[in-house]
Each structure stands twice: as C-alpha cells, then as structure tokens.
Amino acid sequence: MAKTLQADTRSRDTRAELLDAGLRAADELGVRGLSVNAIVAEASRSKGAFFHHFPDRDSYLVELHRRLHDEMEQEMRALGGHLPFGGERLAVVVRVYLDTFLERPGVRAFLLEARGEPAVKREISRRNEHAADVLAPDFQALGWRNPGRMARLWTAALAEAGIIELELGRRDHETRQALEDLAREAPGG
Fold it and tell me: Are residues 50 and 74 in the same domain?
C-alpha cells in the first residue's frame, strides 16, 4: 500500500513538473515552439514520462489551459468568495484575470495562439460556459434581465480586455473601468 502511495505521489509530481515546465517554456517559445522536446528538456524528464501522462500534445495543451484557469479561479474565490453577489465580486474577477496575464505575458500569448488548436478551442468554450454559470448570480443580483447571457457576454469582454492589455504590455485603466461599469446595476434596474 505504501509503495503504491509513493508511486502515485511521484506520478502526480512528475505531471505537475511537466505542466510547470510548459508554463515556463510558453513564456519564451509560444505555442508553435512548445514541442514535446522543449517541454521534457525544461522539466528534465523523458519523452516516455510525458507520454505516460499526456497521450498527445493537444491533451497537454488542454491541461495547461485548465491548470492556469483553475489557479486563477482559486485566487478569485479566495479574494472574492466572501463578498455578496454583485459588482464588487466581478471587480475581483477583472483584477485577478487581467493581472495574471500581465504577470505572464508569454503564457497569455501562448493561450491566444493555442485557440487555433481544436482541443483547446473546445476547452475554452467549456471554460467560458462554466464562467458564465459562476458569474450569472452576480448579474442577477445587479438586476440584469437574462443574467446568464450577460455573464457570457461579459466573460467574452474580459477575454478581449486581456488581449488589449497584452498588446499594450500594461494595464489599461479605461478598459478595466469599462468592464467594471458593465458590472454595475442594470439600466432601469
């Protein structure tokens, strides 16, 4: 039993190391340069270890996307989970999402490039639907008709804000303010 536990721990550690290596390498190489060879070299692991954990490059890219967004979601919950539904919680989402990508511009550029990969595109769609489900109660609390649709549109606007800041290489306070303005009480609400 102890042997199995140790093997499971080593396996999880190796998987995490491969994902960490991909995030580091993405900063330098982008999606086209992020080959299995580059990942295993960065992680100091073998190709066999890579393919033990990920059947192919596409599944790795999807997992990389999931990991980054899961980490952001955890931070958003830690910073805003205690707040009542509404604009203040949405402001936390804006800050965490955009600041994460400003701190890691290579990763953001990599994720933008990876959108052309069909498996990643499906994961992005799934993640956006999840975000809309999580954020809909905030828009409902603000009095928006059809809060689910507003949350989905707002999520798309947040992603576009990330692109704007990536191109600028800095925070764009006007764009951030526009997102927060959309996260206010509904017109006529």
Answer: no
Rounded to whole angstroms, the Cα distance separating 183 from 179 reads 6
List, for residues 107-119, the tens digit of each pLDDT value.
777 777 777 778 8
The verdict on 117 and 170 lying in the same domain is: yes
| Among candidate residues 13, 39, 54, the one where a domain is terminated | 54
Cβ atoms 179, 162 nearer than 8 A: no
Half-sphere exposure of 163 (CA within 13 A, CB side): 10
Q: Dihedrals φ, ψ of 21, to 5°? A: -60, -40
Domain that holds residue 13: 1-54
Axis-axis angle for helices 105-114, 2-33 (nearest 10): 80
pLDDT at 138: 96
Contacts of 83 (CB under 8 A, 6+ apart): 89, 92
Residue with tokens 């952001």: 72
